[in-house]
Specification:
Layout lengths: L1 E2 L6 H20 L3 H6 L1 H17 L4 E4 L2 E3 L4 H8 L1 H17 L8 H26 L4 H31 L3 H10 L3 H22 L9 H6 L2
Antiparallel strand pairs: 1-3, 2-3
Helix pairs in contact: 1-5, 1-6, 3-5, 4-5, 4-6, 4-9, 5-6, 6-7, 7-8, 7-9
């Protein structure tokens, strides 16, 4: 889900853009691109995954002009590449949406926040809890991080978007529709969770070394 046309107050656009910029700068501070330079195979996988998500974002439902509903894939990107590379990928994807005319450029900050930073933060939190608190079991990792994590991230990101419009919206009709949209969030969560969990399970079976957050020695070899 992302914003296509501006219905937010200028102050909200500035604050969300500054917040998004700060988090992206933090992600770049660790020089994540060095991994891409050192590992050509990782570079190809990351670029291919980013392009695939750009294409998947074209499959969208748009009941109103200012809001589009689509699968986000940030949870999967975070689990496979970790948060810094996932955030960089999300920024590139949102820039691509602006370039092809799908979204307005002034909404880049809010869209990166809703589709990238918040889902990545939720995914990272769930992964840390699973990594430290739950048993070393492949199915626990898959269902907790893949299915449950994707559903929770979709819920939190959706509620964040609704809250943003409710607090800083400039169009009364948009505020009303956003509140109505919140009722449909439970219907959107299963689709994101199913696709994320399915793709993650395929990667864990055939290419576990591609999933940066998954330790195949710990979750498979020791069992």
């Amino acid at each position: 889900m992302s914003f296509a046309q501006n219905v937010l107050a200028p102050s909200a656009l500035i604050l969300t853009s500054l917040l998004s910029l700060s988090v992206v700068v933090w992600a770049l501070w660790g020089r994540p691109w060095q991994e891409l330079i050192d590992d050509t195979a990782l570079q190809h996988r990351w670029l291919g995954a980013t392009l695939a998500v750009v294409l998947m974002w074209q499959l969208r439902a748009q009941a109103v002009d200012w809001l589009t509903l689509h699968l986000v894939f940030t949870v999967l990107m975070t689990l496979v590449f970790k948060a810094p590379l996932a955030l960089i990928s999300n920024v590139l994807i949102n820039v691509a949406m602006v370039v092809i005319g799908r979204n307005e450029w002034m909404l880049l900050g809010p869209n990166v926040l809703v589709t990238g930073i918040i889902p990545a933060a939720v995914t990272g939190t769930v992964w840390r809890l699973v990594d430290r608190r739950l048993p070393d079991n492949l199915m626990v990792f898959l269902f907790a991080c893949g299915f449950f994590g994707a559903a929770l991230a979709t819920l939190v990101a959706g509620l964040s978007a609704v809250l943003l419009i409710t607090v800083a919206g400039t169009d009364p009709d948009a505020i009303y529709l956003a509140q109505e949209y919140a009722r449909f969030l439970p219907l959107l969560m299963p689709s994101e969770a199913f696709i994320t969990g399915m793709l993650l399970s395929i990667l864990m079976v055939y290419h576990p070394d591609w999933v940066a957050t998954f330790n195949d020695h710990r979750y498979i070899d020791k069992q």
